[in-house]
Amino acid sequence: MLMKLDFGSDVPIYQQIRNQIVNAIASEKLLPGDKIPAIRVMADEAGVNMMTVNKAYALLKQEGYIKSERRGGTVVAEEFGKGGLGEGLRERLRVIASEARLAAVSEEEFIKLCGKLYRGEI
Amino acid sequence: MLMKLDFGSDVPIYQQIRNQIVNAIASEKLLPGDKIPAIRVMADEAGVNMMTVNKAYALLKQEGYIKSERRGGTVVAEEFGKGGLGEGLRERLRVIASEARLAAVSEEEFIKLCGKLYRGEI
Amino acid sequence: MLMKLDFGSDVPIYQQIRNQIVNAIASEKLLPGDKIPAIRVMADEAGVNMMTVNKAYALLKQEGYIKSERRGGTVVAEEFGKGGLGEGLRERLRVIASEARLAAVSEEEFIKLCGKLYRGEI
Amino acid sequence: MLMKLDFGSDVPIYQQIRNQIVNAIASEKLLPGDKIPAIRVMADEAGVNMMTVNKAYALLKQEGYIKSERRGGTVVAEEFGKGGLGEGLRERLRVIASEARLAAVSEEEFIKLCGKLYRGEI
DNA sequence: GTGGTCTAGACCACA
DNA sequence: GTGGTCTAGACCACG
Fold first, then answer.
1. Per residue in B74-113, pLDDT tens?
2. C100 CA to F2 C1' distance (Å)
3. Which of A39, C2, C31, D94 is most buried, with most CB under 10 Å away?
4. pLDDT at position D25, please?
């Protein structure tokens, strides 16, 4: 669980952590039931404040990606929401598709990229 | 140019305005050379402060989507950067693909959605 | 006297006109005593408002680069201020030198460029 | 970081602030990684509004000279764009060279001045 | 009438 | 405590 954080980015650090964990789960680098590093450990490794990691975990928990174990640890959830694509996700995707189109990325290229990212190939 | 703004969202208003204009250009509701509403007009219509619209326009200008004409008015640029998909865009897309996958959206569904959004069908 | 104007630039149009005339005089494409196009003519050719050309000419006159003829025309002045480099010019040059240095332009390159521009070679 | 501002100048205050910071970086009075004053502090010291300083910083950030650190504070960037002299910079330099020539500054004097400014000697 | 700039406040997210 | 965002005004330069 090496976090690559960009402190100069406009994306909040807790969001970057959240995103990378979501990516890790989707690409099956983290499997359901796998243990996630303790807050203190992750904070030390990443060189950030514990509050920041705590916020990321709280967000992931609220979204249903992870859950607290009875013993104290935190693990990847066994089941995720099957709610399909939310409205928020669709709007975010729409903006990206627009930007890609205006950047002269062809539909074929774009589709291919979407597929590769979905399958975790890149 | 009716803006649909969500004042409760965590995405800044100026970003929402920026996104909707990018979408409008990509879906050809706004064509190169078309005039976009004056800052004050848009501010009045959207019920936000002039400076907020100003910031959105400044961002769009910096990104090359629009340009001020110096004789009054702001227009959609004739040419956009043909730089292809930037690294930032890819990372944003990766997170969305991950979330879709974990929301039990099949690859086929996801690809179909990407295509529709790219073509501006929905 | 073909003006190349960029209406999308942040430099005011009257300044662009003024700059190009100064450049033309310095590179001896316009010689002392040469007649400068009438305001109306220049405005038509450049596709701008007469007031804009008028403002450019007024600025050039105030700076001593051109002067009105008794008959009504406007000509390049015979003598320019021998005042040396003003403080304002030096500060503008300082900023450019700083930007060049930070853009990794070597001192040699920079000096060479300054010389070529001074001699009007490029 | 004392700003010398000319409130009567036609160059915007935020530009003056931007220019002086660029000069400070180029002359190594500010080194990569150095912290620059907080927006509010600089605003107080300079006697201007926070938003004005904010705009200057935003510009510098966009140009890659500084970056916000997300843990409080803004620092001088470690690496600058090595893009060489842009077209805009050349045109600005051309006008200055023309003005210098017409002010009867000899090529030798001009070159010497350019060198000194580049090296930060004056 | 347009965008550009500036002020004097305020609230919030982030770390 | 930091930067980010937003408001409600105002004046000015430009064309």
1. 999 988 766 677 888 999 999 999 999 999 999 999 999 9
2. 31
3. D94
4. 96
Amino acid at A91: E
CB B68 under 7 Å to nucleic chain F: no
> Which residue in C80, C104, C105 is closest to D103 by CB distance?
C80
- Helix extents (H) in A9-120: 13-26, 39-46, 50-63, 87-102, 107-119
Contacts of A92 (CB under 8 A, 6+ apart): B92, B96
Which among D56, D118, D103 is positioned nearest to C88, based on CA atoms?
D103
| Rounded distance between C-alpha atoms, residue B5 and residue B26, angstroms | 19
* For the segment 55-94 of chain C, residues whose CB is within 7 A of strand F: 55
CB-based contact C26:C77 (threshold 8 Å): no
Alpha carbon distance B35, B68 (integer Å): 10
State how beta strands C66-68 and B74-76 pair.
Answer: unpaired
3-state secondary structure of A36: strand
Question: Which residue is it, tokens 């002359």?
Answer: D27
The pLDDT of residue C83 is above 80: no
Kindly state the tokens that stand for B52.
């907020």
**CB B75, CB B82: distance < 8 Å:** no
d(CA A83, CA B103) in angstroms, rounded, equals 6
Q: List, edge to edge, every strand of the sheet that includes C66-68.
A: C35-36, C74-76, C66-68
Q: Which residue type does A61 have?
A: K
Cβ of residue D13 near strand E, that is under 7 Å? yes
Which residue has tokens 């975790």? A120
Judge if pTM exceeds 0.90: yes
Single-letter residue type at A30: L
**What DSSP element (H or E) covers D67?**
strand D66-68
Give B23: exposed, middle or buried? Use CB within 10 Å, 0-12, 13-18, 19+: buried
Q: Does D45 touch chain A (CB under 8 A)?
A: no
Across chain A, mean pLDDT equals 93
Instruction: State how far the Cα of D76 lies from the Cα of D19, in Å rounded to an integer.
Output: 14
